[in-house]
Amino acid sequence: MAGLALDGSNPDVSLLYDINGLAKDAPHWFDRVMEFVGEYGIIIGLAVVLLGAWWSVRRRPKDAPSAVAGLVWAPLAAGLALLANIPIREFVERPRPFKDHQGLDVLVAGKSDFSFVSDHATLTMAVAVGVFMVSRTYGLAAIGLALLEGFCRVYMGVHYPTDVIGGFALGTAVALLLAPLAMMLLTPLTTAIAGSRAAWLVRAGKAPAAGEAAGEDVPELSGSSRAPRSERRHKDLAA
């Protein structure tokens, strides 16, 4: 299964050379920027988008707990997708493109593991799809970052285009197919947090009072034994 893209006439290889060829013509500083963005920058950007989405959905009046549960699922889906990729990579055993093709401008040295599918593409798309299921606005921004990640991996010379497409497919499949089970498990948890003193994690606004935190009705103080001191004193004088 290693020879998925060895023929130079293969469109996968041709597109690899076309995109990676941009790195040869770019200034050195731009390649260094793309190296950082492709390795770490987009993942940091996704974390910022995820944080922004969390801050936003907490203000929803009706479905804040389920929305926060969906955002919790997004990074969990990415982790599960990366675990699912381990046997896939070992089964396919596709070498990195620079091992089979000469003349590539490889921006990141030391990549010795297999190429299919791309971990970075898998992770970023799983998070992006998870966010999109909760917030269209933040989700579109996250998907845009994931697509940029895929471009960067090919630009850097460390993945074939089909490695990236495979990663996108794997991340999307895990995020969508396991979402119903994940939401069934996570929503009761976030709902319970919404009724606790840590409610700010799930809902915007002030934390509930002690009785409200446990879901209890706070009884009104009534009767002579609970009456204000001035009222009791007035009754004593009247007696």
TrEMBL record:
Lineage, opening ranks: Bacteria, Bacillati, Actinomycetota, Actinomycetes, Kitasatosporales
Membrane disposition: Multi-pass membrane protein
The keyword Zinc is assigned to this record: no
Record InterPro entries: PAP2/HPO (IPR000326), PAP2/HPO_sf (IPR036938)
Membrane-spanning residues: 37-55, 67-88, 140-158, 164-187
Compartment(s) of residence: Cell membrane
Record-linked PANTHER family: DECAPRENYLPHOSPHORYL-5-PHOSPHORIBOSE PHOSPHATASE RV3807C-RELATED (PTHR14969:SF62), SPHINGOSINE-1-PHOSPHATE PHOSPHOHYDROLASE (PTHR14969)
Main location: membrane
Domain (Phosphatidic acid phosphatase type 2/haloperoxidase) ranges: 68-179
Pfam families recorded: PAP2
Keyword tRNA-binding among UniProt keywords: no
Region feature Disordered, mapped onto this chain: 209-239
Biased composition (Basic and acidic residues): 228-239
Name under which the protein is recorded: Phosphatase PAP2 family protein
Keywords, alphabetical: Cell membrane, Hydrolase, Membrane, Transmembrane, Transmembrane helix
